[in-house]
Amino acid sequence: QVQLVESGGGLVQAGGSLRLSCAASGRTDSRYCMGWFRQAPGKEREFVATINWSGGTYYTDSVKGRFTISRDNAKNTVYLQMNSLKPEDTAVYFCAQSRLQYGLFSRTADYGSWGQGTQVTVSS
C-alpha cells in the first residue's frame, strides 16, 4: 500500500502561483501513473493533470499552458506547478496513484490510492 501526502496549498491572489507537492511512502513504484485532481464545493472531483513513468503528461484543457506536472522518482514526489491562477481554480487538490502501471490515465476510477487533499483558494 502506498501513502500519499499533499502539501503546498494556500491562499493566493488571481494571477499568482503555487506549487503543490505529493510525497509518496510505503510501497512506492515509479511505474505507476500519478495524477492530480481537484474538487470544488458542490462539484464532482475532476481531473487536472497526470504523468506517467517516462514523463509523459496530459492536462485538462482549462489548465493547459498554466499548470505543469512533474515527478522526481528518486524523492518519490510529484509536483504541480500552478501559474496564472484564477478564482475558478479554487478547490481541494488531491494527488493519486493509478491502479495499473505504464499507462496515462485521466479518470478517477483509474486511480486506487489517494491523498487527503490540500486546499487552494484563489481570490479575485
Give a brief rundown of this model:
By secondary structure, the chain is mainly beta. The protein is 0% helix and 56% strand.
Walk me through this protein's architecture.
The protein has 124 residues and is mostly beta strands. The protein is 0% helix and 56% strand. The strands form two sheets. Strands 2, 4, 5, 6, 9, 10 and 11 form a seven-stranded mixed sheet that branches. Strands 1-3-8-7 form a four-stranded antiparallel sheet, with no helix packed on it. The radius of gyration is 13 Å and the shape is globular. The termini are far apart.
Give the structural class. Answer: mainly beta
Q: Tell me how many strands there are.
A: 11
Largest sheet: 7 strands, mixed
Look at the structure and give the mean pLDDT: 96
Number of helices: 0
Characterize the overall form: globular
How much strand? over 45%
Q: What is the helix fraction of residues, given as a range?
A: under 10%
Rounded to the nearest angstrom, the distance between the terminal CA atoms is 40 Å
Radius of gyration: 13 Å
In the predicted model, the low-confidence regions spanning at least 5 consecutive residues are none
User: What is the H-and-E element order?
Assistant: EEEEEEEEEEE
